[in-house]
Amino acid sequence: MVVRSWRLPRTPPKTFLLPREGRFIVSMDRYLFTSESVSMGHPDKVADQISDAILDHCLRADPYSRVACETLVTTDLVVVAGEITTRADLSKPAVEHVVRKVIREIGYTDPKVGFAADTCKIECHLHAQSGDIAMGVDSGGAGDQGMMFGFACDETHTLMPLPIHLAHRLVENQARLRENGELTWLRPDAKSQVTIEYNADGTPHRIHTLVLSTQHDESVVERRGDKEFFRDEARQEIIDKLIRPTLEAERPDLVKGRLEMMRVGMRADLADEDVIGCHINPTGCFLQGGPHGDCGLTGRKIIVDTYGGRGRHGGGAFSGKDPTKVDRSAAYVARYIAKNIVAAGFAAQCEVQLSYAIGYPEPINVWVSTGGSAAHGLTDEQIAGLIRHHFRLTPHDIIQTLELRRPIYRETARHGHFGRELTAFSWERTDRAAVLRGDLGCAVAV
User: Fold this and answer.
1) How many whole angstroms separate alpha carbon 292 and alpha carbon 30?
2) Which of 19, 243, 338, 420 is the right S-S partner for 150, CB 3.0 to 4.6 Å?
3) Rounded CA gap, 54 and 193, in Å?
4) How does DSSP assign 237-260, residue by residue?
5) What is the pLDDT of residues 183-234, one digit of tens each?
6) Using CA atoms, how far apart are residues 409 and 321, in angstroms rounded to an integer?
7) What torsion, rounded to 10 degrees, do the Cα atoms 126, 128, 133, 135 define?
8) Residue 228: in which H helix or E strand, if any?
9) Alpha-carbon distances, residue 419 vs 120, 149, 155, 204 (angstroms)
10) pTM here?
11) What is the rounded average pLDDT of the residues 133-146?
């Protein structure tokens, strides 16, 4: 018996409650969904980028490196630890060079902010991978047990859910404005959050609310009594130079209201379709940030890394892991599969689950859910059959298909692993869509 799970985007509830000024209003035909992203300077993403930079360093020297690298960052301190088997140079000077280069390129160069490339202390605690794990991987099996998910939908040209797509673009453009000097007062740490109002059929109706918190310097701070506040003029610059251009470049059809600055303590009217509420540095000020403001760890932003909560997550983090770890490689191929299913026109959305046993090469299961959006008379079971026929899913085959032994991983550790049309991101290709369409008749006949 197949039990189908309820899917929010395609089968939303007929009614739901929204808070409004301490009361509740009932909407009969729409619902809200929110996703967040974080910038490259967020402490957890600093840790992710360091771990993946060390992975890339190993793969350049030895494509068959086995890497499981974790990083902790805090005030003027980086701790790198893990299990690595490689021919690459992992001496203390070599590791320090990689770490400081990443921190410098992110933008942490001023010791006054409490974390800087040239002054932070670096501790390195790396040793070889367990022989028990290596034995199973050497024979072609998975590097661990677990389940991995991939997701795609037709809401954006990248086949990503719209809330996470826009959230990524906001922090990506925040970094661009900082790096090109257009907003000189920006610092590297930032977070974005996007709420989309959906119609009952799961199609986006409008952009509803935005939250953007960005670290800044003292030049945009004013004192009100005994407290410091981010200037409203700087908030307006964020709207005019970052938020508005990003939304209009991505989905101008969903910008249905004016972008209104929500000042500290102000509350948006959730029923007003003429307003897109923009909460910018809503705490009032964001001077202290980055690893000095909050300890960062590898693997703590797994929902940011994937689908912003729209698709499930198997639980395993990606960064710092070589592709024999199915936590990473199987999640990548599951995205590849889901994207090709949607690109082939088989469904408006597709979620794929793969699961593995440590040391065993073939997946234990291939599960598909289209949330009731399958086309052409297809069932989810028929699509799963197509997947088994057209995609080879042993760890060895995944690595070969997606060319995963390349030093491509540091770039994945910022602005999302999925939905970015970079040549190196092979899992974003839709090169199997035409072949799948050609096999459609066979699938329907099953």
Assistant:
1) 41
2) 338
3) 30
4) HHIIIIIHHHHHHH-GGG--SEEE
5) 999 999 999 999 999 999 999 999 999 999 999 999 999 988 888 899 999 9
6) 9
7) 160
8) strand 227-230
9) 33, 15, 12, 18
10) 0.90
11) 64
